[in-house]
């Protein structure tokens, strides 16, 4: 077993190639092979979001605070509240983030494939697509 004490691993900024806004990533676990699980707490300030992306083995998001916008390509955006969970199947193009007015924190769980890759990152979400996803 390996224990991780609070504060042992510093928070880090989400890479600008994959995120719009000052997203903060807190690694919870990045399992060693043969395990594949990766779990992070991700905090999005108002207006922040991921780029479009897919996961080779899918992704689970569990909202801890705020309002989470999540959108599958070609579908309307969904709005999730604290305690809500969404399963995104393998290969589904999607993005997720905060609303324009409220910060959001979620847990993001995904597994790496046989090469260790857990996500395929695509283009940034356009401002127009993000604006269209905002709550009425």
UniProtKB/TrEMBL annotation:
SUPFAM superfamilies in the record: RmlC-like cupins
Domain Cupin type-2: 41-102
Gene3D superfamilies recorded: Jelly Rolls
One family name in Pfam for this protein: Cupin_2
Coiled-coil intervals, chain numbering: none
Protein name as annotated: Germin subfamily 1 member 15
The species this protein was found in: Chelatococcus reniformis
């Amino acid at each position: 077993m390996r224990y991780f004490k609070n504060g042992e691993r510093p928070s880090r900024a989400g890479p600008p190639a994959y995120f719009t806004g000052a997203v903060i990533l807190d690694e919870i676990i990045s399992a060693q092979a043969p395990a594949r699980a990766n779990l992070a707490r991700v905090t999005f300030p108002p207006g922040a979001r991921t780029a479009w992306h897919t996961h080779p083995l899918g992704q689970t998001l569990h909202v801890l605070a705020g309002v989470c916008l999540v959108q599958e390509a070609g579908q309307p955006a969904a709005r999730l509240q604290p305690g809500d969970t969404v399963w995104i199947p393998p290969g589904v193009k999607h993005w997720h983030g905060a609303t324009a007015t409220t910060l959001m924190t979620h847990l993001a769980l995904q597994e790496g494939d046989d090469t260790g890759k857990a996500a395929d990152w695509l283009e940034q979400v356009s401002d127009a697509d993000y604006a269209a996803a905002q709550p009425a």
